[in-house]
Recover the amino acids of this structure.
């Protein structure tokens, strides 16, 4: 009986350590997600792009985009006095893979942007971000942003 209790105690300690490790990973990940969203919403181009892996895949406007071209487009938009006026994330759901170094975050996005000519565009979208911990930092390796059509 003593051996069974000892084994049970060891299992409880091991599962507690795993839970603590994943809890810390999740806090780290949630902080990265929040900082990424904050950088975008506040037109911090370099802060925003610092969360992308160098070879990230991004999908906007119905097509895959080149990350370098996307970065150049955002830099040009800021120089021309365009940018994000509103970006609100809701219904965030995060799934961390058992390895603890890959996660998928999904959310709804309410967005309003201002073009260089002052025209404003309002949209609603669903976004899926695949995050990977690379060299100790969470980076987006894939982002898929799909617009939600307005109700007729």
């Amino acid at each position: 009986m003593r051996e069974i209790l000892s084994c049970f105690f060891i299992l409880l300690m091991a599962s507690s350590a795993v839970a603590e490790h994943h809890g810390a990973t999740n806090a780290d990940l949630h902080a990265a997600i929040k900082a990424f969203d904050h950088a975008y919403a506040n037109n911090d181009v370099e802060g925003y792009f610092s969360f992308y892996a160098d070879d990230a895949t991004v999908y906007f406007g119905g097509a895959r985009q080149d990350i370098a071209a996307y970065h150049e487009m955002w830099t040009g938009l800021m120089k021309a006095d365009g940018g994000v006026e509103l970006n609100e994330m809701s219904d965030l759901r995060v799934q961390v893979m058992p390895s603890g170094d890959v996660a998928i975050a999904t959310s709804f996005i309410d967005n309003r942007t201002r073009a260089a000519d002052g025209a404003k565009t309002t949209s609603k979208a669903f976004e899926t971000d695949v995050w990977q911990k690379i060299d100790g930092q969470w980076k987006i390796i894939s982002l898929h942003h799909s617009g939600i059509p307005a109700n007729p």
